[in-house]
Amino acid sequence: MVELGDFDWNHIRAFLATAEAGSLSAAARQLRQTQPTLSRQVAALEADLGVMLFERVGRSLELTQAGLELLEHTRAMGEAANRIALTASGQAQSIEGEVRITASDVMSAHVLPDVLRDIRERAPLLRIEVIATNDIRDLMRREADIAIRHVRPDQPDLIARLVREARAHLYAASTYLERKGRPRTMAELPAHDFVGFGDTARMIEFLAPLGIHLRQQNFPIGSPSGIVAWEYVRQGFGLAPMPEEVGDATAGVERVLPDMEPILFPIWLTTHRELHTSRRIRLVFDLLAEHLARQEPGK
């Protein structure tokens, strides 16, 4: 693992901007520096560390393995430096305007309230609009400023950060399991009812590689709304996967096959390139990253 040690912050900032922008020219524009200056700063950091951080692929730069390892640390440093600057100058209290966050309805209702309280405390003049939808909103059309999704966007003009690999489990209401019986093995799951979230065919396809082989007949009820579907689980209509921070906190439901390996899925935080120039988007983006990463077991 690459160790940062005692290095020039300007060199680290140059590396971070280049890694997130994908090119020296774009990073130079964001930092309001010349491209040769930025290139020298990145080269100086590589020399200090004794490793190559980027390799050129066509007209773009790609991070080496050492660069990927360093990126994790420098992002944390950048977020901390930004928060310190805002706090020291009192700027967070004066940040105003609107930031639109789009996330699934389940995450919007069950996960975001904690971070929204933190945002309200740090930036009371800021207005947050949460667009709760299970569709992938197009940031390029400015339907939202920040998106929380389980797939990485493919638009090159967006900044995407993998916050963590989240864990989900199968859950069911205790009343359902007392009525239908608690499955002891995965082979018994097809004998149970499931509650569908959105597209049932995609849900079947998602669960199959995990060894859970279901058919349409296993989904007698469902809803495109995650909140509605989860309420049906709580009301005893059947089983469904759910992130553990939501499932474990819901009264009246319990894990099915609690010894089964958790279902892993990524959480991506995505925003526009103006992250580097908009204080309000930077603040909300950093706080979202901090809170979502903190939910990882052991943090």
TrEMBL record:
<keyword id="KW-0805">Transcription regulation</keyword>
<dbReference type="InterPro" id="IPR000847">
    <property type="entry name" value="LysR_HTH_N"/>
</dbReference>
<keyword id="KW-0238">DNA-binding</keyword>
<dbReference type="InterPro" id="IPR036390">
    <property type="entry name" value="WH_DNA-bd_sf"/>
</dbReference>
<dbReference type="Pfam" id="PF03466">
    <property type="entry name" value="LysR_substrate"/>
</dbReference>
<dbReference type="GO" id="GO:0003700">
    <property type="term" value="F:DNA-binding transcription factor activity"/>
</dbReference>
<feature type="domain" description="HTH lysR-type">
    <location>
        <begin position="7"/>
        <end position="64"/>
    </location>
</feature>
<protein>
    <submittedName>
        <fullName>LysR family transcriptional regulator</fullName>
    </submittedName>
</protein>
<dbReference type="InterPro" id="IPR036388">
    <property type="entry name" value="WH-like_DNA-bd_sf"/>
</dbReference>
<comment type="similarity">
    <text>Belongs to the LysR transcriptional regulatory family.</text>
</comment>
<dbReference type="GO" id="GO:0006351">
    <property type="term" value="P:DNA-templated transcription"/>
</dbReference>
<keyword id="KW-0804">Transcription</keyword>
<dbReference type="InterPro" id="IPR005119">
    <property type="entry name" value="LysR_subst-bd"/>
</dbReference>
<dbReference type="GO" id="GO:0043565">
    <property type="term" value="F:sequence-specific DNA binding"/>
</dbReference>
<dbReference type="InterPro" id="IPR058163">
    <property type="entry name" value="LysR-type_TF_proteobact-type"/>
</dbReference>
<dbReference type="Pfam" id="PF00126">
    <property type="entry name" value="HTH_1"/>
</dbReference>
